[in-house]
Amino acid sequence: MPRESYNVRILRSKAIASLRTGVAAFNGLDDDARTTTVLLHLQHAFEMLLKAILEAKKDAGVFDKRTQKSISLERAINRCQQIGAVKLTDEEAGVIRHLDAMRDAEQHWHLVVDEGLLYHNARTAVTLFDDLLQRVFSENLSDHIPK
Questions:
Q1: Quick check: helix, strand or coil at residue 70?
Q2: Total-model pTM
Q3: How many CB atoms lie within 10 A of CB 72?
Q4: Residue 33 per-residue DSSP state
Q5: Where are the beta strands (DSSP E) in the chain?
């Protein structure tokens, strides 16, 4: 197996750290900004994971040469849906898009997220994150969290 690039390792590390922070906030004792923190970190986890995947596949970079900035989450989703080895399904893309929309509405307005809905979305996010980590990097999420 070829050695991973520095960018792939850093992006995947950021993705895992954000997922862990989101899960810790979900299970935490502090209700102050809890929903915002959970959604923000879960959304960021997917943005970093998808960019790590794109960097690993080398045929779809994460920088827009025109703007000199990294691509958006939406563009990363679209690119990951087109890569054969990854082939993010419409359902998986929908999970990430929904999480992103909830994060945006909750953070920039005053969306009230029912606890059951937050749990459902957080659980779905963790499952999908683990699936993608296994599918692309042959790693289990359980290897990155305390026993």
A1: strand
A2: 0.93
A3: 12
A4: T
A5: 63-64, 69-70
